[in-house]
UniProtKB/TrEMBL annotation, chain A:
<comment type="similarity">
    <text>Belongs to the binding-protein-dependent transport system permease family.</text>
</comment>
<feature type="transmembrane region" description="Helical">
    <location>
        <begin position="150"/>
        <end position="173"/>
    </location>
</feature>
<dbReference type="InterPro" id="IPR045621">
    <property type="entry name" value="BPD_transp_1_N"/>
</dbReference>
<keyword id="KW-0813">Transport</keyword>
<keyword id="KW-0472">Membrane</keyword>
<feature type="domain" description="ABC transmembrane type-1">
    <location>
        <begin position="111"/>
        <end position="312"/>
    </location>
</feature>
<protein>
    <submittedName>
        <fullName>ABC transporter permease</fullName>
    </submittedName>
</protein>
<feature type="transmembrane region" description="Helical">
    <location>
        <begin position="193"/>
        <end position="212"/>
    </location>
</feature>
<feature type="transmembrane region" description="Helical">
    <location>
        <begin position="258"/>
        <end position="278"/>
    </location>
</feature>
<dbReference type="Pfam" id="PF19300">
    <property type="entry name" value="BPD_transp_1_N"/>
</dbReference>
<feature type="transmembrane region" description="Helical">
    <location>
        <begin position="298"/>
        <end position="319"/>
    </location>
</feature>
<feature type="transmembrane region" description="Helical">
    <location>
        <begin position="115"/>
        <end position="138"/>
    </location>
</feature>
<dbReference type="InterPro" id="IPR035906">
    <property type="entry name" value="MetI-like_sf"/>
</dbReference>
<dbReference type="Pfam" id="PF00528">
    <property type="entry name" value="BPD_transp_1"/>
</dbReference>
<keyword id="KW-1003">Cell membrane</keyword>
<keyword id="KW-1133">Transmembrane helix</keyword>
<feature type="transmembrane region" description="Helical">
    <location>
        <begin position="25"/>
        <end position="46"/>
    </location>
</feature>
């Protein structure tokens, strides 16, 4: 045990990148395995008979039996699991219990819309929160302008508390139905993106604004910023050159943590806007008790979150190799 | 932010127990109280007052819009929506609180276990928590809600499962700090059982931040639960909560927005109330009484002090700095008067806390936030600080003054190249083009004997040693050809050989460019060796100003004498303890009148305790702030001191009895 860890330690010193990537890859694999197993277990663990639930109470028994056989639910669990994995490697996610269509087709058609929504919302969050948090920090550093600080804290606190789907409903009522400024539902060109993106980005923006402000305040109080002040640089270069780069890494790390939550948040927002994405498909399937689709949606969203986490980690390691790799 | 905030927020600084009074009295605290009260009333009274109205169908008034009778309209069965909304307060809040408590109990147990189990189990638990945390809580909640079957109970359990990992992580982090403490080690040595360790020693110490996080999590749980009901995974008809009402209202939002908007507002209102409650609880510690602003005149009336001398680079009279602290006002600098001639190297010496660095920062207009400086006169390069505009003053400081800081490790921006940091000042203030600025930087590096040239300019601070960094700092400071360099303990963080080189560099720059240097140090030997003149600082004031060559023998202030005597030299007897000055430095908050040194001074007079001496001329280029300055010692004063000390020791006197008095009496006897 000790020799192994000693050897690993030596390896870590010589090839920090390889060790870092290896560890992250292992973590990703284990997590993906958990997601796959969970999604496999779902349809088999739900109370009652999912097939009967999906087909309706008055479905003839032989149809239910045939469907069960078709899904392989009448075989032993290890057998089912092997089959499930085999199908998964071929991109086969089974068929919908209700419509009988392949789930993979549904996912393929709807995933891009969901990802686009999440990415657009994330970009908006960054675009507002990074400069906004920086300005707020510069304005309120060292207890200056206590009123501005109070207003900032109160506003972001309230903003962060507003649930995205509630905001989505409010925006629909106000801007789409009452004022007819934006389409009410569906994907009808660029204008229909405004409300869903706004609803998704609103609360995370508030959270990130506060994070960026705190990180910036830390940097503003550091010795090297005092040294830069001693050079009496004009305010803009001082902050852009000496404060922003040092603020960015920590802020982006925490922003990266918001992205998976944003992907999950699309489920509720998509339902409000009848957005043709995975989230609304999942919501519909939950209502229709189509567990095959729910299962696949959980699998896809869960994997998307894990992959995004992995990519964010890698990106941060590239951005600031010293801190991230040393921490790993 | 449903999904992320469902997890308890990152551990915040543990505040004092509960919110301080100022937290609740603040506008935020009052708003929170009002909001919580507004929630509590329908939550408690809702079932009694509106239950019957909420459940009574009225086939004659189906799907009505808002009317005087039904303020929010009616639903598909003609039931009054306002009554339903109010009656749903309790069924919306209770499951959220229940789910949070369940999740908190599970998560806290899991997290706290990490503090009391062995190494391998701890790693396994940590990995498990990490794995669970990788998934957004909302997704986990949806998964388990589908698994447990749609319904309020299933949703509560699902939510509890979803928020447990967050609690586990926080508890793990907090418990790790407790696990390392001495009392835990003692408890383990005593052989306490695990559950007793957990209940008696770990949990009580981390209870406060956990309570705070539970508050925040309850708000998020409410939102998540509404979200589940909204998706059809939570409350099932005929029971209802806000999420279900919102979902039902959304179906008819095209014709009637209010039935969807009203439950939405209710959810948002409750979520914000919990959020603010967490805010107030967390902020209670931070908002502990704001530092009071000292009530002092912003500037002392300019006294008819010395006229502006032509060759003076810097003149400061009666400089004071105040730092507001939480419950008192600290006065680290209390009336400093100093002047520097062109090309003069002046040492500012004093022990830590004597106000040297703050004096330097006040001169350079770089005081930390909150600190305020006042002065009688403050003239830099002949221009008065009070009479010139902020912009002019900035420009004069930018081109005329440069600073070198104590710690070269933190004085450079770690993410910028050396070249950028060296050239930015000349480029900004002299408008030097980039290429020319680089040439100047190379020349400056040559001057400080740093090889490497352009390669060095391309490197980053962490690639340089401490001594190299300080040379770069000196080179950068000299590039502006300033009239004054303020060097704040530039050698303290460096080893002795590097110290010597840095001193040589500073002296060369002074000689070549006729730059005045204010050299701050606590090392009186270094200052005596390198500077033309020495200012001795004690308790925020200058107590003596004398030429450096007179320091060894001609010091007249008791403190300076003792400071000089405390320096060991090669002839010092190594078997005897080093000489020290008895007592501690004065309290920078004290407001008592009198000489700051009087309680440590062996020569104190009655007057010293009640009246503060001012710096007054004693001879050519020699000023002292003392009511009873010591008579000048003969040449070789320091040796005499040593001899007297040795003799005193031999005659059986203890070290503390050896005071300057003995020395002086002896000297006078010799005359």
């Amino acid at each position: 045990m000790t020799t192994v860890s000693a050897r690993l330690g030596a390896l870590a010193r010589r090839h920090p990148w390889a060790v870092f990537c290896g560890r992250r890859a292992v973590r990703l694999t284990v997590s993906l395995f958990v997601v796959v197993t969970a999604s496999f277990a779902m349809i088999r663990l739900v109370p009652g008979d999912p097939v009967r639930a999906a087909l309706g109470v008055d479905a003839p028994p032989d149809l239910v039996a045939a469907k069960r056989h078709e899904l392989g639910l009448d075989r032993g669990l290890p057998d089912q699991y092997r089959q499930y994995l085999r199908h998964l490697t071929h991109g086969d996610l089974g068929v919908s219990l209700v419509t009988g269509e392949p789930v993979a087709d549904l996912i393929r058609a709807r995933l891009p819309a969901t990802l686009l929504l999440a990415v657009l919302a994330f970009v908006c969050v960054l675009a507002v929160a990074l400069p906004g948090g920086l300005l707020a920090a510069v304005w309120t550093r060292g207890g200056r302008r206590p009123r501005v600080e109070l207003a900032f804290t109160a506003t972001t606190s309230v903003m962060a508390g507003v649930p995205d789907f509630v905001l989505a409903a409010g925006l629909t009522a106000q801007l789409a139905v009452a004022l007819r400024l934006f389409p009410v539902a569906g994907d009808l060109g660029p204008r229909s993106y405004v409300l869903p993106v706004l609803a998704l980005a609103f609360a995370p923006t508030a959270v990130l604004l506060r994070i960026v402000r705190v990180e910036t305040l830390k940097v503003l109080a550091s010795d090297h910023v005092r040294a830069a002040r001693a050079k009496r640089l004009p305010a803009v270069p001082l902050h852009l050159r000496h404060v922003v780069p040092n603020t960015l890494t920590a802020s982006l790390t925490l922003a990266g943590n918001l992205l998976p939550a944003l992907i999950a948040g699309t489920v509720l927002v998509e339902k409000v806007f009848a957005w043709p994405g995975i989230g609304s498909a999942m919501a519909q399937s939950v209502a229709a008790q189509d567990h095959a689709v729910v299962e696949a949606s959980v699998l896809v969203l869960g994997s998307a979150v894990l992959v995004v986490n992995f990519l964010v980690d890698l990106a941060l390691a590239l951005l600031d190799p010293r801190s991230v790799i040393r921490k790993a | 932010m449903v999904p992320s905030s469902l997890r308890p927020a990152a551990p915040r600084a543990a505040g004092r127990s509960g919110a301080s009074r100022s937290g609740w009295a603040s506008p935020l605290g009052a708003t929170t109280l009002v909001m919580l009260g507004t929630l509590a009333v329908p939550a408690v009274a809702g079932a009694v007052l509106w239950r019957t109205a909420a459940d009574r169908p009225d086939p004659s008034a189906v799907l009505r819009g808002p009317t005087a009778e039904h303020l929010l309209g009616t639903d598909r069965l003609g039931r009054d929506l306002l009554a339903r909304l109010l009656a749903a307060t309790w069924p919306s809040l209770l499951p959220a609180v229940a789910a949070t408590l369940l999740g908190a109990a599970a998560g806290i147990t899991l997290g706290a276990l990490t503090a009391v189990v062995g190494g391998r189990a701890r790693r396994l638990l940590g990995a498990l928590i990490n794995l669970l945390l990788a998934f957004p809580a909302l997704l986990v909640a949806m998964f388990f809600a589908a698994l447990f079957g749609a319904g309020a109970d299933g949703a509560v359990c699902a939510l509890a499962v979803a928020c447990a990992p967050g609690f586990a992580r926080i508890t793990q982090t907090l418990a790790a700090t407790v696990a390392g403490t001495d009392f835990m080690a003692a408890a383990r040595v005593l052989g306490l059982r695990r559950h007793r360790l957990l209940l008696r020693h770990v949990l009580p110490h981390i209870a406060e931040p956990l309570v705070l996080n539970t508050t925040v999590a309850a708000g998020s749980a409410l939102v998540a639960l509404s979200g589940l009901s909204f998706l059809g995974l939570g409350a099932q008809p005929p029971s209802y909560d806000w999420g279900l009402l919102l979902s039902q209202g959304l179906d008819r939002i095209y014709t009637e927005p209010l039935p969807a908007v009203a439950p939405g507002i209710a959810i948002a209102f409750a979520a914000v109330a919990f959020q603010l409650l967490g805010e107030v609880l967390a902020g209670a510690a931070a908002r502990r009484a704001r530092p009071r602003q000292p009530e002092e005149p912003t500037a002392h009336p300019a006294r008819a002090g010395r006229p502006a001398a032509a060759d003076h680079v810097l003149e400061v009279e009666d400089l004071r700095v105040v730092l507001p602290a939480t419950d008192r006002v600290v006065r680290p600098v209390r009336g400093v008067t100093l002047a520097l001639r062109r090309g003069e190297m002046v040492g500012l010496v004093g022990e830590s806390g004597s106000g040297k660095s703050l004096t330097a920062l006040a001169i350079a207009d770089l005081l930390p936030d909150g600190a305020r400086a006042t002065w009688g006169t403050h003239r830099f390069l002949g221009a008065d600080a009070g009479s010139s505009s902020r912009g002019e003053r900035r420009r004069r400081l930018a081109t005329g003054m440069a600073m070198i800081f104590q710690n070269p490790a933190s004085a450079f921006n770690p993410s910028l190249r050396i070249g950028t940091q060296m050239t930015e000042a000349v480029r900004a203030h002299h408008g030097t083009p980039r290429a020319q600025a680089v040439e100047q930087a190379l020349a400056a590096l040559q001057r400080v004997a740093l090889p490497g040239g352009r390669r060095l300019l391309r490197s980053r601070p962490f690639q340089l040693s401490g001594g190299q960094r300080q040379r770069v700092a000196i080179a950068a400071a000299s590039m502006m050809r300033p009239a004054l360099i303020v060097a704040d303990e530039p050698t303290t963080a460096l080893d002795v050989t590097v110290q010597r080189q840095i001193m040589d560099l500073l002296r060369r720059i002074r000689r070549d460019d006729a730059t005045a240097i204010l050299f701050i140090s606590h090392d009186i030997a270094l200052v005596a060796d390198a500077c033309d003149r020495v200012l001795v600082m004690y308790g925020g004031t200058i107590v003596e100003n004398l030429p450096a060559r007179e320091l060894a023998a001609g010091a007249r202030h008791p403190y300076t004498r003792m400071l000089v005597a405390s320096v060991p030299d090669l002839a010092a007897d190594r078997d005897r303890p080093l000489r020290t000055i008895e007592g501690g430095p004065p309290d920078p908050c004290a407001t008592a009148p009198g000489c700051p040194f009087h309680d440590r001074c062996p020569h104190r007079l009655d007057r010293c305790a009640v009246e503060s001496p001012v710096l007054s001329p004693l001879g050519p280029e020699h000023e002292v702030a003392c009511w009873g300055p010591l008579p000048p010692a003969p040449f070789r004063g320091q040796r005499v001191t040593e001899a007297a000390a040795t003799e005193a020791a031999e005659t059986g006197m203890t070290e503390t009895d050896v005071t300057e008095t003995d020395v002086v009496e002896k000297e006078e006897a010799e005359k």
